[in-house]
Structure formats: structure tokens, C-alpha cells
Specification:
Number of strands: 13
Distance between the termini: 21 Å
Strand content: 5-15%
Number of helices: 11
Helix content: 40-55%
Strand order of the largest sheet: 5-9-6-10-4-3-12-1-13
Length: 396
Amino acid sequence: MNNSLTITTIAIKNLTQRKYRTALLLSLIGLSAAVLFTVFILVTSLFLGIKSVEERLGADLLVVPEEYENQVQAVIMSGQPNYFYMDKKVEQIVASVSGVAAVSSQFYLTSLSESCCDFPIQLIGFDSDTDFVVKSWIGKSIKNTEGALFAGAGVPVENESVRFFGQSHQVSSILAKTGSGMDYAVYTDKQTLQSIFEDARAKGFAFVSDGDVNSKISTVLVKLEEGAKIDSTILKIKMAVPGVKVIESDRMLKNNGKTLSSLLGFLYALVAVFLIVTIFTLAFVFSLSINERLKEFSILRTLGATHKKLSAIVVLEAVILGFAGGLSGIILSSLIVFPFNALIAQKISLPFIVPQIELIAAFAVITFVVAVVSSVLASLKGAIRIAGFEPYESIK
């Protein structure tokens, strides 16, 4: 064969001259690669999110007003602002229950007025003297202030402050990322929250609560004594405080884990379908291509090309398609998943943390390899056929 007419140049020319067929195959491989890479990122992000919430939640039990279990889960998991209140005496009663090691209350503040804030937000007041949850999340301290005001990792902070109810407030710390709705809340000690409430009310904002953080609470976080039985402690709390709902943190996370498992099952099935369809479609197209190119291969064979080189042309075309399709699929997926990861997390209402760059790179390599290998597998039938082909009569 002429030195200028190499296996690589023949493969590239064939792909460029058959533009529509090449574009179709690239689109199919690229779409499959995009789905695979997206599933890798989504699955890992969801697992990291659930694990982060489990580590950060810090409380064994949450006590809330009866019939408000879904609301508190929405606040924690997806950051949907909400409100519900009960008498602060509940905290003292729960603390006296045998098996309870520590309690700390929180107060949810929600405005009824429109445009109260520069962004959707849940204000949560916590008791700084008894808190064993919020302070453990501190990821970055900004400066010491008279009151504690901690911004979740997803809260926009400009000039070391946040603005709501027409007033800028100095942020003392940024909380570590949890991947859950807790990233979109602002936590303050109850004195600071009372001050925010009074300032907002003076400016005409209306609230569901009367703002008395000293007599009302929204939730009681409970840490159990070592060895205490959860079920019996929950029963004791319900008997001591009628009209409350006791939520077991682990069970809440397990329920979200079931939702996650169902979602993962769908995603895995989607990947399997796409890969199977891609391989069979590629194999079919490669087979048709072989039939169309019999005269071409006959001429190459007459010019001295061996069966091995003819097969190599077919396989190399598949490699080039897999290379380009895999790369384009990864890029397409990245342009969708990473810029809109917060929106994705909001829509699926599950904790979501994008993995580290090293893991993302590993997923990209795996996706790329799968795209190339799938393309090569699809071309094997055609390559094997050409390996035993003696097509002299095709020239006639």
C-alpha cells in the first residue's frame, strides 16, 4: 500500500466522507456516554449527601408538633422554609425523660410578607448554651460579632453579611457543606433572632409567630444516653408530652435511603438500556457499512492490503467514534450536571454533594473507556467478516 495511504488515513477519510452516518453514530455514542457519566455523578453525589446529613445531624431524635413530620424533613433535606410551634415547656419535660442525655431546642422564623428577603431562606434560632449540633458544623469563621449568626454553605454571603427583612446582618461563621436543605438556612442564637424579629416587625413585616422565642420552640433535638433503647425512650417521650411527634434520625435517613434506592434502580436500568441499544445499533450500522464498502475493500485487497489491515480499518473507525463520542458525552453531561447541581438537588429533594475532582476524573476515564470498548465490541462482527473476505469478484 502507498505509504501516504495508511490505515489511519483511510479510517478518517471514510468517517469524514460519510458525514450523516458518522454524525448519527457520534450522537448515539455521545448520548450513551453522557447518560453513564451523569449517573456516576448523581449516584455518588446522593450517597455523599446522605452520609453527610447522617454525620452532621448530631441528634438521635427530633421532637416536633404532631402532624409536622413531613415539614421538618422538608426543612432538613430540601431546605423548604416552614414553621411550626409548641410550648417551650416541652423541652424541659423531654429533658427529664429517662434515657435522654441532652436536649436543645430550635425556633423556626417565617414571614408572611412578600419580598421579605433577598433569597428564599429559613431562619433558625438555636440555644447557644445547650446546642450540640449547629456549632459542630462551623467550617469557616469570619469574625467575632456580638451575636452568633451562622450562614449555611449555600447561603449567598456578600461583604461578610446577609440581607433579609430590609436589614444587613453580619455573618460570624460559614457552616460546613452538608449537601442538604440545612445548607440554605441561617442559624442564629435566640437573642439575635429576637432582635431580627423586632426590627423586621417595626418595618411592617407580618409573622405567623408572635416572635416570643422565650416561650415557643419549633423542635427539640435529643441526644440519648449510651445504651438507652430508642423505641422505649420514644414511647416515654410521647407519654410525657401528648401531642408531639418523635422522629428517629436514623429512620428518617433510612426512609430517604429507600427513595434513593428506587431512584438508583431506575438510573442503573437506564444506563443498561442505553448501552445495549448503543452496541446493537452500532453493530447493525457497521454491518451495513461493510456491505456498502465491499468494492472499496476489494480494491484495497488487490493493492496488497492484508486481511489484518482491512479488519484494523474497521476497528480503528470504531475506536475513533468511541473516542470522539465518549469525549463529547462527558462534556455534554458536565455542562448540564455541574452548573445546575443545586437545581437538581432541589428537584429530587434529597441531600446532594458533588464529589471531589479526583473522583470526577476517575468517572470520566471509566466513561471514556466504556464508550471506546462498546464501539470496538460493536465493530467486531464486521472486522471478523472482513478478516475472511476474498472479494475479487466485487470489483467486476
